[in-house]
Structure formats: structure tokens, C-alpha cells
Amino acid sequence: MQWPTPALFILALAPLSGALIRFQCSQLVVQRLDPLVNPGMIPAAHVHQIVGGNSFNATMDPKKDMPGESTCTTCSFSEDFSNYWTAVLYFQAKNGTFKRVPQTSQIGGGVGGITVYYMQDALYDTAQKSKVTAFKPGFRMFVGDVYARTKAEVAQFRQLTYTCMENQGTRAPETLDFPNKPCKAGIMVNARFPTCWDGKNLDSPDHMAHMAYPASGTFESGGPCPSTHPVRMSQVLFEVVWDTSKFNNKADWPDDGRQPFVWSFGDATGYANHADYVFGWKGDALQKILDTPCVVNCAGAKTQTTANMNKCVQKAVVGEDIDGWLTELPGGHKVQYGPSS
Ligand SMILES: *[C@@H]1O[C@H](CO)[C@@H](O)[C@H](O)[C@H]1NC(C)=O
Ligand SMILES: *[C@@H]1O[C@H](CO)[C@@H](O)[C@H](O)[C@H]1NC(C)=O
């Protein structure tokens, strides 16, 4: 598998004791389903892009046997039948209509989707020596706030950010709101989940309360987990690259200086960045990989070809146009530019 700019990992390698894994998942389906927040609802509130195992459906009962019910996965790690999803981006033209922004895969030949990381220590730490516990069947979580429209509201999640990409390797700076200028190589959305588990609940009513951030410091600085959430888990990070290049002509942007991108649920600030995760690895495959020292290309992990990943697709069950020039966002969401509008 080829990664275009593995610049991060060319740093001198200290002896590893655990794994940092990074793999690509191609698009499974793009549609209005959300089994975590709107279980059973067809259609759900807003459009998502979903990757992973093909047992994904509108209900996703916690007892669902995701590896058993899936016949394929869109992830390059072929024992991962988890589902990962985010909202999708739309471009709003001057005449008010919307066009879905395509996604770029970070591997040659991949189809859209998400780059997924599981790490035991900070992304740039080449030792990965903190032991972490893998998630269990039935585990799921959410991060972010669909209603956030201010910096303070998103800052509580610490690490939901955007990178305005000059080229494929751009990783900084990260902002909490949408970039306010055209980004040559697209906009990367980074979603990092909290890393401290209460050790008991596989889920919680808001899909967040069973997880917490370190009591002091950060995951990156090795901060300790709070006593209420004592189990240190791996940090899950999604990178999603939105190919905004077709929409970068400043003449097509609003005359008042606003940026033109809007999430599928109407947020034009970017502060409502959020992500969903439903664990579905086969057996103890994830724990085994995490316990085997490696970075990115993990020999112990079973993988599949990009062609096989791309073959795994689902037909949308929600029959609606999400890709034309749309007069309104699917679901009828109004565009919100700030807290009071
Ligand atoms: C989703 O899959 C489950 C099996 O895990 C099945 O019982 C259920 O009917 C499916 N629901 C929908 C809405 O397709
Ligand atoms: C609105 O603008 C877009 C982009 O310029 C264009 O493709 C589309 O046809 C326009 N729609 C209408 C209804 O004018």
C-alpha cells in the first residue's frame, strides 16, 4: 500500500513497544442514516459518509454481530468490520444552491472515505509505549456537538479541527472553525475521540458520558485518566480529506467575505464538527495489533487490496438526490452562520 507523504513517520524510530496503526477505509455508502443518534430512523436527520463493514444499517443493535453479519469491509485492515462516519460537506453557491463536496482517499486508488488511526501515545511519539485496552463488542461513541456554533462550545472537545491543506502533506495549523480561505489541496477534518473509559458502559445516552478526557494534561502529554473513567484506551483519530479544489474560485465565494462550505446539517461555522464510531473488529484482532510493536504497516495485521476495499459498497436505502445542485440541504436544514442566526 502506498502512502503519499508518510513524512510523520520518517522521524528517527525509537524502539517501539506498542502499535500506532493508520489505515484507509473507502466509502461504503453516503446517505441519511445515523444508527447511533437516530436509531431506526429512515431517513435520519442529516447526510453522512459511512465506511467499514457492510452489516451497517439503520438500527445497529448493541448485540449485533458485526464481523459475523458482514461479508466485506471497506477498510484495508480486513478484520475491521467497525463502522466510522461523519457528516458531509456541501458548497453553497452564490445563487444559494448546494453541491456535495467530494472526498479524496489518502491512498492511490482508494475511494473517498476516512483514514483511521488507533494510537497508544501521541501521533508523533515513535515509541508508543503506554499500554491501552482495545474496545469491546457493542462499544460505540460519539464526539462533538451538532448544535455548537461558537469556539467555546467546540473547545470542550479539545481536538475537533480543520487543516487547510496546501499540499498532501500539510498537517498544520489546525483550526476549530472552517478555514476562511481557499485550500489548494482540500480541507482535512480531524476528529479525535476521548481516551478514558469508565470501564463499565459500552455506550451512554448521549454516547459520550462513558468516555472522558484525561484529568490533567492531555492524551498527548500522557495525562492520567480521571477516577470516574480510569481505563486508558487508544486514541481513535479520523482524517477526512474534502476535495474543495473545484470550489476554490474566490469569485464564486460570498461577497461579504464568508467562506462557502456548510456541513450537511446546516452549520457554516465548522464548530459543530462531530464523528461517530461503532466498534466491530473480529475477535481480539484489535488488541493483538495494538500489543504488537509497529507503526502504520503492521505485519501482524491482516490486510486486503485496495481493489477489494472498493468493491465493498452498499446501496443507499434512502432514495433522495444528495449530489445534484440542490435548492436545500437534504432534510431541509437551514444554513447557520453563527449562534444567533
Ligand atoms: C439491521 O440488521 C439487523 C440484523 O443485525 C436486522 O435484524 C434488522 O432488521 C436490520 N434493520 C434494518 C432497518 O435494515
Ligand atoms: C447556481 O450556481 C451553480 C454554480 O455556479 C450552478 O451550477 C447552478 O446551475 C446554479 N443554479 C441555478 C438554479 O441557477
Automatic annotation (TrEMBL):
One Pfam family in the UniProt entry: DUF1996
Cleavable signal peptide: 1-19
Ranges of residues in domain DUF1996: 34-281
Signal as UniProt keyword: yes
Entry keyword set: Signal
Protein name: DUF1996 domain-containing protein
